[in-house]
Specification:
With 139 residues, the protein is α+β, with helices and mostly antiparallel strands. It has three helices and seven strands; from the N terminus they run ββββαβββαα.
Length: 139
């Protein structure tokens, strides 16, 4: 009998802010040249790392922004590279920072929710837009 594969554990945030221009809600998407996709900032957890700490670390590494964590969002489970992967997400408000392109992320966009939903490459990521909007209404 074979044991189930251990999933790759990852974490990230649906990073948001109020537009400096008009105060409307904007969501942060990152472009990863390795995959040529638009996604939420996220990444693999270090061994023994707390998932929320890992999510905040990945946000800062990929976007240059520190983040104030909010409510937890869904955990997405899927297969990648032939292995199962689980990504835990949190809502997080962007604090101080500035994006500098790097080898993992070459572009960053702050977009209104509808535009972010359309720009996200993977359908599974799009559900988190509505989940974030519901979470922000409850706060």
């Amino acid at each position: 009998m074979t044991s189930p594969e251990k999933p790759v554990l990852a974490a990230g945030c649906v990073l948001w802010r109020r537009s400096p221009a008009d105060g409307t809600l904007e969501l942060c998407l990152v472009h990863r040249p390795k995959y040529d996709d638009w996604s939420w900032p996220k990444g693999k957890l270090e061994p023994g790392e707390d998932p929320l700490a890992g999510a905040l670390r990945e946000v800062e590494e990929e976007t240059g922004y520190t983040a104030v964590p909010g409510p937890p969002l869904s955990t997405l489970a899927y297969r990648t590279g032939g292995r199962p992967k689980q990504v835990r997400y949190w809502a997080a408000e962007a604090a101080a920072g500035r994006f500098v392109p790097n080898k993992e992320v070459d572009r960053l966009r702050w977009l209104p929710p509808d535009d972010a939903r359309d720009r996200l490459t993977r359908l599974r990521d799009r559900e988190l837009v509505d989940e974030l909007l519901r979470a922000l209404r409850r706060v």
